[in-house]
Amino acid sequence: MAYDEDLAERIRELVGMEQGMTEMTMFGGLAFLINGNMAVAASGQGGLLLRVDPEQTESLLEEPHTEPFEMRGREMKGWLRVAPADAGTVEELEPWVARGVAYARSLPPK
Fold first, then answer.
1. pLDDT of residue 100
2. Long-range pairs for 79-82 at CB < 8 Å and ≥24 separation?
3. Is-contact 48 96, C-beta < 8 A?
4. How many CB atoms are closer than 10 A to CB 50?
5. Which of 25, 50, 63, 84 is most enclosed, with most CB atoms within 10 A?
6. Per residue, what are the HEC states of the chain?
7. What is the pLDDT along the chain (110 residues), one digit of tens a residue?
């Protein structure tokens, strides 16, 4: 499945003015990086792939439409999937994108 181009455009509208923002294909989707650190992506499996503070992973998984990101069968702390149902509008999308951008900004530039 290709990533949702409309979702990618909505993300781009939210992060396009961020200093140090670049785009890169990753994980079968389109990722938005801040200073070389992934913040958020339009996932190739639908919805968002989001990078967050690993200490917040468990509490954020209590939010509707979220699930852990798994790589090779292993859950990755600090990474979430957000279903398309919770990223349909800019108003729904913006808080998730803001979380990803804030965490990416907290990391040393690559």
1. 97
2. 79/49, 79/50, 79/51, 79/52, 80/48, 80/49, 80/50, 80/52, 81/43, 81/45, 81/47, 81/48, 81/49, 81/50, 82/47, 82/48, 82/50
3. yes
4. 24
5. 50
6. CCCCHHHHHHHHHHHCCCCCEEEEEECCEEEEEECCEEEEEECCCCCEEEECCHHHHHHHCCCCCEEEEEECCEEEEEEEEECHHHCCCHHHHHHHHHHHHHHHHHCCCC
7. 589 999 999 999 999 999 999 999 998 899 999 999 999 999 999 999 999 999 999 999 999 999 999 888 898 999 999 998 777 788 889 999 999 999 999 999 99
CA separation for the pair 46, 38 (Å, rounded): 17
